[in-house]
Amino acid sequence: MATPPSEIDGEGGPECLLLRDFNNDGRLDILVNGPDDDVCLFYFGDGKGNFPGPPLEEAVTHPFGMDAGDLNGDGNLDAVVGVIESDPGISAATVMLGDGAGGFTISTFSVNNKPASNKIGDLNNDGIPDIVVAGALPGNRTGNFISTHLGDGTGQFALKQNIALGQGNTKGDIALGDFNEDGNLDVAYPKSGSQIPHDHSRDVLLFFGDGTGNLVTGPVLTVGQEPHTVTAADVNHDGHLDLAVTNRTDGTVTALLGDGNGNFTVSSTTSVLSPIE
Prior knowledge:
Layout: E1 17-20, E2 29-34, E3 39-43, E4 56-59, E5 63-69, E6 78-83, E7 92-98, E8 104-110, E9 115-121, E10 130-135, E11 144-151, E12 157-166, E13 175-177, E14 186-193, E15 200-209, E16 215-222, E17 227-233, E18 242-247, E19 252-258, E20 264-271
Antiparallel strand pairs: 1-2, 2-3, 3-4, 5-6, 6-7, 7-8, 9-10, 10-11, 11-12, 13-14, 14-15, 15-16, 17-18, 18-19, 19-20
């Protein structure tokens, strides 16, 4: 009989996870959110596919979009997690600075209502990680947005730019990459829908970075219904970043090939629906 895969119990309706080495033992760990229980859980791996022992729990209110990187330059992995609140002016990004042994120091900074995605990258080319925050999740009252927050190298972040994108929602992750190959990070943003039930978008919005932390609006890409998450990678090995977009309503993945100038062309759309038997 085949050995069943390792299974660990999450808490609070987990929706997002990261696989990273948070305690510097050379083994992958899991960071998973528990939005219903206001907690983030760290499960530390043994290098054999198991995650023994109780998880480390960090209190975060309705945690959602997550990313990891060394935010304060100490050589230890840190994380940023979105804090979802229904009331405008209360949402935040939680910064978790790791000590390299599996412990974390927590701080927050304010962001727009209902952030869906937080991504780490060096937006102003100073060698210090910055954070892009995008939203808003369904049920927001302030509309979609994208904002940039510049890091100071100690784990503190200051708002550089906030772009209001009008009515709508986004449900998954943005992607960062240098799409036009000018040396500055750009952003691909999946707009999932409007605030009207069952009125789904087909748009992925591009924003080009100027190297100072500001973003400039670029073209709109058309994909399947209700784009959820964007991933950037060179899928055809031509040296240019491409995009893959998951489309929830269609049950498809759209691949778009980049030309290195910030332009993308749909190359394939693949169904991921299981046949009904």
